[in-house]
Amino acid sequence: MGTFYKDIGIDGLSDYCKGIMYASGCIIRAGGMRYLCVRNIDKWYAECVGKETGYTPYPSVHNIERDGRPQWTVKPRNMQEMPDIRSAKNTADFIRPYLELHSTLDTVKAGNARKVRLRIYGKEEFLSIIMYCIPAKPKKIQKISNRIRSEGGEYIGKTCAIYYQSRKEIEQILNYINGYPRNDVVWERWCSVMDEY
């Protein structure tokens, strides 16, 4: 059975949009079709994908028990493959939304003072790729397990992370990925942390 959705392919998309898809998307197989689905609790990312693919984001109750609020979803049925970093012409633009979505910039106590810390989460393979793209020394990938409780029960979540605690390296990373489009809410929060310490 054929589909009436014309595959637009990944070549016509911005690297930022590809990064969003990689960071918060998955391929769905249903009714003999295969298409991309992007979900995020921040509407900004679904809207970015919607603008470039021609699809309208909508609120979804998928994972509402876990997140405590609806996720914004866009299903560009004309996208039949998951972009990856090899498809990016500008790796900084691809990595920017990934870090916006899968990193934490905060502070950690160091003696009597506090210093900034950037933690980037994800699959070990992708973290290895990121480390060789960003302007900072490679770090040891940490394996993390967290006990997660929700109304549906309890499970152990597993992921990996890389940690940067050098202010100079963090500034270099942020300067490297800085550009547009970007989620200004995230960048304002990051700038606030960097300005404070």
Question: What does it look like?
Answer:
The protein is of the alpha+beta class and 197 residues long. It has two domains: 15-87, Endonuclease I-creI (Roll); 91-196, Homing endonucleases (Endonuclease I-creI, Roll). Helices cover 36% and strands 30% of the residues. The chain has seven helices and eight strands, in the order αββαβαβαββαββαα. The chain has helices at residues 15-24, 43-53, 64-67, 91-102, 124-133, 167-177, 184-196; strands at 25-30, 33-40, 58-60, 71-74, 103-110, 113-122, 142-150, 153-164. The protein has a four-stranded antiparallel sheet. A hairpin with a 2-residue loop joins β7 and β8 (153-164). The longest helix has 13 residues, at 184-196. It is globular. The relative contact order is 0.15. The model is unreliable at 1-6 (pLDDT under 50).
Keywords:
Endonuclease I-creI, globular, 7 helices, 197 residues, four-stranded antiparallel β-sheet
CATH class of the largest domain: Alpha Beta
Radius of gyration (Å) = 18 Å
Strand fraction equals: 25-35%
Taken in chain order, the helices and strands follow as: HEEHEHEHEEHEEHH
- Count of structural domains: 2
Alpha plus pi helix count: 7
Major β-sheet profile = 4 strands, antiparallel
Tell me, rounded to a whole number, the average pLDDT: 90
Structural class: alpha+beta
Distance between the termini: 59 Å
Q: How many beta-strand elements? A: 8
Low-pLDDT residue spans: 1-6
In which range does the helix fraction lie? Answer: 25-40%
Strand order of the largest sheet: 1-2-4-3
- Can you name the CATH architecture of the largest domain? Roll
Give the name of the CATH superfamily of the largest domain.
Homing endonucleases
Shape: globular
CATH topology of the largest domain, by name, is: Endonuclease I-creI
